[in-house]
Amino acid sequence: VDQAEGTRELAPVTIRKRATYLLFAKAGQEVVVAGRQTQVGKTDFSSKPLLAHGPSGKVLHRAAFKGFNQVLEIKFKAAEKGFYALEVDVGNHAFTLLAANVPAALDAAKHSVSLIRCAGPIYFDVPQGTALFAVGIAGGGGVEGVSATVCAPDGKEVWRKDPITVAERFTANEGQGLAGGLWQVRFARPSTGVFEDFQVETLGVPGYLFLSPDRYWAF
Questions:
Q1: Among residues 124, 112, 148, 100, which one has the least CA distance to residue 213?
Q2: Which residues pair with 113 in a beta bridge?
Q3: What is the structure's pLDDT at 192?
Q4: Cα angle 81, 82, 87; round to 5
Q5: pLDDT by residue (tens digit) across 170-197?
Q6: Residue 147: half-sphere exposure toward Cβ, Cα within 13 Å
Q7: Contact 16, 115 (CB under 8 A)
Q8: By three-state DSSP, how is residue 182 classified?
Q9: CA angle 17, 18, 21 (to 5 degrees)
């Protein structure tokens, strides 16, 4: 689903340390994404090159940050229709994918995604006929926490928890997922504690956390 044109800003979702983004492109399309690395704590700059992989796994593009707060643009041509992966590893620091001209998602299919000090929102697709699914959110423990709100495709708030310091889970009631659609999770500073590290995962639905409600893929 692509209801946008050109390169558009994405939801301000900041990952901690490392993550994989999936990008969907058509054959012959030029893929354009931009991101920024930011410092966490007082640790010196460290970062591995960002790698863009094609559907076959071949590295198509390699780009490296030279310091904090630099906006790095990555461009490559998609030789075939399919999913392209962007591998990010910024050491102990943080990274935000700022913009893209194609559907983009954080890959949470195999494990949770680590985020830091960001409001989102993120979106995930619930296939029609889904009987049971859940969203798991965990704060960093101790004083580190987050506030989270889950909204149905019609925008109605169905679950809210504040603060979240340990693992919490929204589980859809019977019938909530049957119609399917694009659900949303918003994050915010907790009412108590420190807004820092937290994790998010989906269960029972495809584990792709989209960064725009106008660009995503559905099952």
A1: 124
A2: 200
A3: 94
A4: 130
A5: 999 878 999 999 999 999 999 999 999 9
A6: 9
A7: yes
A8: strand
A9: 140
Kindly list the distances between the CA atom of residue 176 and the CA atoms of 108, 149, 201, in Å, as whole numbers in the listed order: 22, 16, 18
- Residue 123 structure tokens: 């979106």
pLDDT one-digit tens code per residue, 112-166: 999 999 998 999 999 999 999 999 999 988 899 999 999 999 999 999 999 999 9
Q: Which of 209, 208, 4 is nearest to 102 (CA)?
A: 4
The amino acid occupying position 103 is P
Tokens representing 65? 């940050």
Strand 144-151 and strand 157-164: the pairing is: antiparallel
Q: Strand (E) positions, the chain?
A: 8-9, 14-25, 30-38, 50-53, 59-63, 71-77, 82-100, 104-107, 113-116, 122-126, 134-139, 144-151, 157-164, 167-171, 181-188, 194-195, 197-203, 208-210
Which residues are paired to 42 by β-bridges?
Answer: none
15: its two tokens: 């990952």
Comparing CA positions, the residue from 127, 100, 122 lying closest to residue 199 is 122
Beta strands 194-195; 14-25: pairing state: unpaired
Taking the mean position of all CA atoms in its chain, how far away is CA 167?
Answer: 19
Residue 219 to residue 208: CA distance in whole angstroms:
11
- The pair of structure tokens assigned to 174 is 């019977």
| β partners of residue 163 | none
Q: What is the pLDDT of residues 43-99, one digit of tens each?
A: 899 899 999 999 999 999 999 999 999 999 999 999 999 999 999 999 999 999 999
